[in-house]
Amino acid sequence: MRDTALLPPTEEELPHLWQKPAFDVLLAGLKKLRVELRVWTLHDSRRDILEEQAATAHDRREIVSFLSTIIKSSLAWLDSDDERELIWEEASKRMSERCGRTAMGEITRCWPFEHCDHGSFSLAIREPPLAGDSLGLKTWGSSYALAQLLHEFAAGPLAHLFVPGAISTPEEVLELGSGTGLLGLAAACIWKTSVVLTDLPTIVPNLAHNASLNMQVVEERGGRAEVAPLTWGGGKDGIDARFRALNRYQLIIVADPLYDDDHPALLTSAVDEQLALNSDARVLVMVPQRDEITKGLLCTLREELAQRPHPLLCLEESIVDGQDDWGDEHDHDEMGNVGFWWGIFGRGQPASA
């Protein structure tokens, strides 16, 4: 059944150009066509998503045709060049939004969280337009998938780090490759602790914006979020002062960190420098299993972590199903279920000389 609250108007509700609709009518019609990206959960059914897509496929074709007609039209009946330029601009935006996430402009999505232990809250996350290799400006599905499991980890395999008064309780949690900050901000809220969110210097401004945007939500739940630049393998030159003292963090979290062949070694270097050396320290990692390349990068990461002088061994692991919007949100293959692998690593015995 078509949900009119979520889906764009049908072709019959759109203005007809042959009727030479007024500027206000055209602009209002185009604004109604704005695409709002889906916020999914681990419990979403792949079947439900495909049924929704199929139910609106005709509408999408009609809308694309409508937008194309506007872009090609001279709009000669409008009163000014300024009006025509604004209509063409809006139509172009609506068209680009239907070409996948990488073609979209700036968006802000609200990500809901609800659990009996931490109550209900939502985080507003700004995602600027993607440019070049700035993948950290997008919120990837694994961040939300891992964030929704944080309460289970705190009550299960990471419980020793959250026992009140325990010597090992982390004063701060370090997130590597925070991107837009969804995972780190959720951790601050759910775990009621201080989280340091880090990424490349080019990603930090948007990350800091999102931390500021959600400051009240985080603090109301007993958490704290700070943002700092941290380049994996960047050496000590120009490093933020807080990272100069090595091996201070009892818990490191990271989601979807592997895109290139050099990432496993770089991530391993950052983890090895920042994770405490005691046996209680842990690293929580989530890696989507999108394809054979991603699976291979995960295997390399495990090998890199195990080969350190103080090896990091996988103590517990599993895979959960989730959704991602790596490609076109209307592409059935791209929007398929993704297996999100997670693993918890701890320090092993030093390698023999």
TrEMBL record:
Q: Does the keyword Signal apply?
A: no
InterPro entries the UniProt entry points to: Methyltransf_16, SAM-dependent_MTases_sf
- Please name the Gene3D superfamilies in this protein's record: Vaccinia Virus protein VP39
Taxonomic superkingdom: Eukaryota
A single Gene Ontology MF term assigned here is: S-adenosylmethionine-dependent methyltransferase activity
Q: Does the keyword Methyltransferase apply?
A: yes
SUPFAM superfamilies, sorted:
S-adenosyl-L-methionine-dependent methyltransferases
Query: Which keywords does this Swiss-Prot/TrEMBL entry list?
Result: Methyltransferase, Transferase
| Entry's Gene Ontology cellular component terms | cytosol
Q: Which GO terms describe its biological process?
A: methylation
Query: Which PANTHER family is this protein grouped with?
Result: HEPATOCELLULAR CARCINOMA-ASSOCIATED ANTIGEN, PROTEIN-LYSINE N-METHYLTRANSFERASE EFM2
- What name appears for this protein in its UniProt entry? Methyltransferase-domain-containing protein
Source organism of this protein record: Chaetomidium leptoderma
